[in-house]
Write a structure and sequence with these properties.
Aminopeptidase; 7-stranded mixed sheet
Length: about 140
């Protein structure tokens, strides 16, 4: 099977299981994860972008678009598949998506979820560190 990345438009039972596993380290309450997931799919301002391999969703992030900026948040890769290029592929595909929409910048706001490891990872991918965010010029 090959690794793919895409925007989620509808929920499936397997997607819900995988998303729960993916975000459990950040949010321990499974019911809250499911609620957040359902709200995300129902809303129009944010979209879920996932990486899939062998019919399993192994990485994800949330994208929010403004007139010129694509903001990324909740970047996560399943712990058993880390260090294999999944996160890099996922973020690169999000950047390509931003370019296809003729957006100027991709940003990741500095929040509690942005760890030192994620910061180093973003810088390695070409993001520049600002006071309150990491940015990538398309």
């Amino acid at each position: 099977m090959r690794l793919s990345a895409f925007t989620v438009t509808a929920s499936t039972p397997q997607l819900l299981i995988d998303i729960t596993k993916l975000y459990r380290p950040f949010q321990h309450d499974e019911a809250e994860i499911k609620n957040s997931f359902n709200e995300l799919l129902a809303g129009k301002s944010k979209t879920l972008f996932v990486a899939k391999f062998n019919d399993r969703h192994i990485g994800g992030l949330i994208m929010q678009r403004s007139a010129t900026v694509l903001s990324l948040s909740c970047i996560a890769v399943r712990d058993i598949t880390q260090q294999r290029g999944v996160g890099k592929y996922l973020v690169q595909q999000a950047i390509e998506h931003a370019k296809s929409l003729d957006l100027e910048t991709v940003t990741v706001l500095k929040t509690a979820q942005v760890t030192a490891e994620l910061s180093a990872f973003l810088i390695h991918l070409g993001f520049s560190e600002q006071a309150s965010a990491f940015s990538f010029d398309c």
